[in-house]
Write a structure and sequence with these properties.
Number of strands: 3
Structural class: mainly alpha
Radius of gyration: 27 Å
Number of helices: 10
Strand order of the largest sheet: 1-2-3
Length: 412
């Protein structure tokens, strides 16, 4: 085969590879944005615009970062031709003229690598903060023990984020060595394959992803949910495992393949970002999907193992207190009027298998929860996970009359 034919075949192969990369990149990006739109629709349908929470806004900040990262990846491949200051011998570096197109492309690609690592770190940090804010909403009203777990998560995510940023901008000094071609700046200054960055970001992902998974999962399996429901919820809440798989593969390719490792790591980094966006939004979408699929699967998607709607004294749900309606001291319903300590609020609590009511501006742990004899149902083991709760605002005037009742349905 002649040299011309060889070059033509090589050019065609490169063009096909670039086309395949672009197709995958923007398909994943489009699907990630669509899932975020779907999540927002599910939340608006459930609680309305005024009752959106912090995580509902944070995910859109993540989409801005995801857009930036995808754009950087596109430019690195289509304009930088996947070139950077790595995968070169000393002889190749010495003969490469600073005025040549390849030199300029390698400098351009090396700068994009630094920007890409920074954007990737910020994106993953933002998505994990969104998950933790969701956990706060999920566990509102529970004991301090559960809240401490979440705040530890915030500290862990923040510290690993700081460690990653320090590594990116501190492992190679001066910063201009990140796009130095000749002499060889060393592995730490080759952004595409820099092992300090790869190891720190990978370790951060492992530590934080495992911790975030371990916050809700053990509690979930101590509930009275059906086994099928537990498994489905575990898959939804534990989907961060797939992010770990992508991060692991990316790290393996960088460490073991000095020739094609950078390109393969870039591809898996794109997939990791996509999976992170999907897994962050999935818990919000799952309740809506469950509603749509319930006609097909019937009772397999119902929450609790028992049809009873009354729970014994001491029973607690995520986001609420005990589920009893009457006062244990006198057997009198709390609907008769406000207590001396809360003259303007009524706190009627009714817990079903998938909802709970919370009176606005009254902390669940401060309410004098009524007690009903537990003869109907044996005490439930652990904590009951609610897939939907209802926030009810009951205002009472000085004469003990209720008015302006407002209800908000919120998934999870």
């Amino acid at each position: 085969m002649s040299d011309a034919a060889t070059q033509t075949a090589a050019s065609a192969a490169i063009t096909a590879a670039i086309r395949a990369f672009n197709t995958e990149l923007w398909t994943l990006y489009g699907f990630g944005v669509l899932m975020t739109v779907f999540r927002t629709y599910a939340r608006l349908k459930a609680v309305g615009f005024k009752d959106l929470r912090g995580d509902d806004c944070i995910v859109w900040l993540a989409i801005l970062l995801y857009t930036t990262q995808s754009t950087l990846a596109y430019y690195a491949v289509n304009y930088g031709q996947s070139l950077a200051n790595n995968s070169m011998t000393d002889a190749e570096r010495a003969i490469l003229s600073p005025n040549s197109m390849e030199y300029q492309l390698r400098v351009f690609g090396s700068k994009i690598q630094v920007a890409g690592w920074t954007c990737y770190t910020c994106l993953i940090f933002t998505l994990k903060i969104a998950v933790l804010v969701f956990y706060i909403r999920l566990m509102e009203g529970l004991s301090r023990h559960f809240r401490i777990r979440i705040w530890i998560g915030f500290g862990l995510v923040a510290s690993t984020f700081i460690a990653s940023v320090i590594t990116i901008y501190g492992a190679c000094r001066p910063l201009s060595k990140y796009w130095q071609i000749n002499p060889d700046p060393g592995n730490a200054c080759q952004g595409a394959v820099a092992r300090p960055i790869v190891w720190v970001t990978f370790t951060s992902s492992v530590v934080t992803d495992v911790y975030l998974i371990m916050i809700p999962i053990p509690m979930l399996w101590g509930t009275s949910l059906k086994l099928a429901k537990k498994i489905a919820s575990t898959i939804v809440l534990g989907a961060g495992v797939f992010v770990l798989v992508c991060s692991l593969l990316k790290t393996i390719f960088v460490i073991t393949d000095p020739v094609n490792g950078a390109q393969l790591a870039g591809e898996w980094g794109t997939r990791e970002a996509f999976v992170s966006v999907i897994t962050t939004n999935l818990p919000m979408i799952f309740p809506l999907l469950k509603t749509w699929l319930k006609p097909l699967f019937g009772s397999a998607l119902s929450s609790a193992q028992t049809p009873s709607k009354k729970y014994p004294s001491g029973f607690r749900t995520i986001g609420g207190g005990n589920g009893d309606e009457e006062n244990s001291r006198g057997g009198v319903s709390r609907r008769r009027g406000p207590s001396s300590s809360n003259q303007h609020f009524s706190s009627t609590l009714l817990f079903t298998e998938s909802e709970e009511r919370i009176v606005k501006d009254v902390k669940m742990q401060d309410l004098d929860i009524a007690v009903r004899p537990a003869s109907i149902l044996k005490p439930s083991k652990g904590i009951m996970v609610s897939n939907e709760f209802k926030i009810t605002e009951d205002k009472i005037n000085q004469n003990g009359e209720r008015y302006n009742v407002k209800q908000v349905h919120e998934p999870w």
